[in-house]
């Protein structure tokens, strides 16, 4: 029965909870929730949650779904204006959100509306969008964790929040590294193969001022990787997990004049060039959000800072293969897969 119900869509699973108390206890069991998340993770029904000035909408990324054309609105179970919500990470249907009016961190499941505020009286769980970095992961004990890299007054403290223990702890960062300084910018984390990866950029992004930081989710330790072999005065990188392999889009050139965008793949701690895209197919990209698109194997979607959603066929080896472009008016959002996972253990 576990295997059958776990394969159902989240809304159907929620209906099954009403059958009887035995089914309710069964579905709320941690083992079942993990099994359901596993199946949903591999499903084709990914969602794109987009934030407008006054509303939050969910778009289906399945081209054959009515939700692709007609989005649905999402209610917020906590007080926050949509324009003051900043989405930091997603995992198993849960989103980690910063409420910018209070700087509080919140873990929220938009489908079930369950949420949990992580801030406490010890000043833990408060996030600065222009200074901090964050990742969302599951460790070896099957516990959901939030990694919060917090920078204040020239110092750096690394916190980990455990959902199972409902508490914060600290871990050590790399010794004798300058990444605590405000001249370094941290990218959002990309979860891939047991690690959280960050691109760290100094000042205006010279190629000699770029690094990749890896956090091992099991040993809870940091390491440093090299950046792809690119030399230019204006370089930026955006990480993406494609079929559990870490890739990076490297943009060469400045904001107004983008000369080339190159896709690299990490193999045995070294970067291999996959292929490049000619600039003429792209609008200027200062930041990108990329993710694997499960409806079409070998396809990746890129969301630009202009709200474009661009589909790329990764199986084509010639340069700049361009499939479709869609435009959303909203400028900020998150990609996730709906599940019944709850931030409240």
Radius of gyration: 20 Å
Query: Residue-averaged pLDDT, rounded?
Result: 79
What is the number of helical segments per DSSP (H or I, 4+ residues)?
A: 5
What structural category characterises the helix and strand content?
mainly beta
Please indicate the percent range of residues in DSSP E strands (runs of 2 or more). Answer: 35-45%
DSSP, total strands: 25
Terminal Cα separation, in Å? 23 Å
Helix amount: 10-25%
H and E order: HHHHEEHEEEEEEEEEEEEEEEEEEEEEEE
Low-confidence stretches: 280-289, 317-325
Sum up the overall morphology in one term.
Answer: globular
Major beta-sheet overview: 5 strands, antiparallel
Question: Which terms summarize this structure?
Answer:
globular, 5 helices, 345 residues, five-stranded antiparallel sheet, 10% helix, mainly beta
Outline the secondary-structure elements.
Elements: H1 2-6, H2 10-16, H3 21-28, H4 30-41, E1 46-51, E2 56-60, H5 66-69, E3 72-73, E4 85-91, E5 94-99, E6 104-108, E7 115-117, E8 133-138, E9 144-152, E10 155-162, E11 167-171, E12 184-186, E13 190-192, E14 195-202, E15 210-216, E16 221-225, E17 235-242, E18 245-253, E19 258-267, E20 270-278, E21 288-293, E22 299-304, E23 308-313, E24 324-327, E25 332-337
Antiparallel strand pairs: 1-2, 1-25, 2-3, 4-5, 5-6, 6-7, 8-9, 9-10, 10-11, 12-14, 13-14, 14-15, 15-16, 17-18, 18-19, 19-20, 21-22, 22-23, 23-24
């Amino acid at each position: 029965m576990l295997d059958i119900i776990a394969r159902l869509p989240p809304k159907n699973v929620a209906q099954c909870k009403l059958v009887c108390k035995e089914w309710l206890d069964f579905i709320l069991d941690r083992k079942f929730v993990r099994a359901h998340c596993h199946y949903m993770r591999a499903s084709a029904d990914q969602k794109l949650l987009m934030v407008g000035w006054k509303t939050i909408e969910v778009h289906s990324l399945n081209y054959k779904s009515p939700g692709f054309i007609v989005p649905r609105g999402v209610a917020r179970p906590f007080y926050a204006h949509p324009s003051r919500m900043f989405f930091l990470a997603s995992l198993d249907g849960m989103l980690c959100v910063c409420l910018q009016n209070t700087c509080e961190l919140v873990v929220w499941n938009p489908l079930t509306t369950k949420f949990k505020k992580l801030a406490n009286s010890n000043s833990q769980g408060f996030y600065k969008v222009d200074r901090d970095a964050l990742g969302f992961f599951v460790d070896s004990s099957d516990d959901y964790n939030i990694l919060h890299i917090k920078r204040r007054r020239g110092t750096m403290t690394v916190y980990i929040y455990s959902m199972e223990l409902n508490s914060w702890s600290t871990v050590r960062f790399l010794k004798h590294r300058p990444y605590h300084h405000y001249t370094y910018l941290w990218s959002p984390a990309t979860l891939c193969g047991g690690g959280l990866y960050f691109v760290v950029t100094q000042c205006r992004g010279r190629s000699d001022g770029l690094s990749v930081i890896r956090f091992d989710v099991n040993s809870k330790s940091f390491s440093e990787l090299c950046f792809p072999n690119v030399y230019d005065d204006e370089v930026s990188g955006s990480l993406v997990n494609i079929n559990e392999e870490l890739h990076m889009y490297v943009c060469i050139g400045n904001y107004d004049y983008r000369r080339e965008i190159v896709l690299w793949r990490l193999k045995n701690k070294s970067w291999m060039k996959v292929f490049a895209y000619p600039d003429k197919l792209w609008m200027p990209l200062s930041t990108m959000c990329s993710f694997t698109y499960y409806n079409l194997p070998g396809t990746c979607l890129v969301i630009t800072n202009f709200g474009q959603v661009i589909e790329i066929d990764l199986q084509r080896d010639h340069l700049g293969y361009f499939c479709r472009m869609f435009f959303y008016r909203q400028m900020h959002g998150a990609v996730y897969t709906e599940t019944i996972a709850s931030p409240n253990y």
